[in-house]
Specification:
heterodimer, A: 114 residues, mainly beta, 54% strand, B: 114 residues, seven-stranded mixed beta sheet
Chain lengths: 114, 114
């Protein structure tokens, strides 16, 4: 069965500091991996995704993530945090089988301190 | 494209009343998902449809909850009778085969049951 673990339900960084949000997955099929962001009072918005090919994936707003098969990880990073990055971030993996179902992690709430 | 459309955006009702939430998926998408988000339980998948047919409703919490998709451009989630513990944000998302499982979320309906 597919699953996602996000380490750290709350992460706090200073403005300008590195952002690192951790995601580990378990999948019995080649994984498709996703990071979504949810700003307050909004729906989830896709940041980036990995399906095949290059393992370093670049997304919107300066975020990127690297797929590491040996570590079953897909950590999200951004070199320099901005106040506007404060939001909740969800990692997801596709479910096995011929569906478009996603398995979501429990989310990480990112706070950015001035 | 206008994206996934949900209505109403906010709903306040009294315990025992019927509540109907509505969703219009992105044109051409053949998967539709209903999620519920609460502080206590996070993001939960309630039910999803493929080509208007319910595929998995194992996440529907009780018989008080029902969902329909009469055509490719409209779905409803109904709660009858509503209870205070149903208070949550309900999201609709849609996806298509060409998107490698990527789901597009609506803005959500914030339901408050008094």
């Amino acid at each position: 069965a597919q699953s996602v673990t996000q380490l750290g339900s709350h992460v706090s960084v200073s403005e300008g500091a590195l952002v690192l949000l951790r995601c580990n997955y378990s999948s019995s099929v080649p994984p498709y991996l996703f990071w979504y962001v949810q700003y307050p009072n909004q729906g989830l918005q896709l940041l980036l995704k990995y399906t095949t090919g290059a393992t370093l994936v670049k997304g919107i707003n300066g975020f990127e993530a690297e797929f590491k098969k040996s570590e079953t990880s897909f950590h999200l990073t951004k070199p320099s945090a901005h106040m506007s990055d404060a939001a909740e971030y969800f990692c997801a993996v596709r479910d096995g089988g011929a569906t478009n179902k996603l398995i979501f992690g429990t989310g990480t709430l990112l706070a950015v301190q001035p | 494209d206008a994206g996934v459309i949900q209505s109403p955006r906010h709903e306040v009702t009294e315990m025992g009343q019927e509540v109907t939430l509505r969703c219009k998926p992105i044109s051409g998408h053949d998967y539709l998902f209903w999620y519920r988000q609460t502080m206590m339980r996070g993001l939960e998948l309630l039910i999803y449809f493929n080509n208007n047919v319910p595929i998995d409703d194992s996440g529907m919490p009780e018989d008080r909850f029902s969902a329909k998709m009469p055509n490719a451009s409209f779905s409803t989630l109904k709660i009858q009778p509503s209870e205070p513990r149903d208070s949550a944000v309900y999201f609709c998302a849609s996806s298509g085969l060409a998107g490698f499982n990527e789901q597009f979320f609506g803005p959500g309906t914030r339901l408050t049951v008094l």
